Please model this.
Amino acid sequence: MSQADAGTDLRERGDALALAFQDGDPQAFAALVDLFQERFYRVAYRILGDPDEALDVVQDAFVKVHAAIGSWDREARFGSWAFRIVTNLAIDGLRRRGRERKAWEGRAQEQPDVQEDRADEGLAAADQSALVGQIKAAIEGLPPGQRAIVALRHYEGFSLKEIADIRGCALGTVKSTLHQAFRNLRTSLGAEVLEAVGARAGGGER
Model:
């Protein structure tokens, strides 16, 4: 089975299980969890960059799916509806973390006698020399919305149209956001590093 066929099969299975759960089959929800939990986690982790926070997002997402399944439009793809919940929760967590960090930084500035811990310079240098570390750090530097679209496109392989459905925005917005994200990554990493991992701003027009 090709990757495209596998993706279609996953979407159709998700829709069928969601229909069954909406119609009152409790076992269908357990099957939805089995089908989507790994993909939910991957997207949440790519946005947040923290495994514990990503797990919390997955748990919260399934709670919301369970509670709100009645509001899912049966004419729409279940996956698009569910991944919108995941990405919104992850983005909210990322923004909340940013607000909390600013608050802590403000408190630290009010206490000049506090000594900052010195980082292990050898370890930092080793991390910075690793390509994976560079990519991760650069992606974590993107604004939340850009990180979400990069995660959906280049780690989960969603089409641009599917991403537009998930994020609830126009196709043109997805394209421009993705383009801006890779302009930012190119500035941070350089074109050669992006090419080394096969990440390109265009990404096709699917």
Remarks:
- Residues 103-128, 199-204 have pLDDT under 50 and may be disordered.
- The radius of gyration is 19 Å.
- The domain at 121-206 is CATH 1.10.10.10 (Arc Repressor Mutant, subunit A).
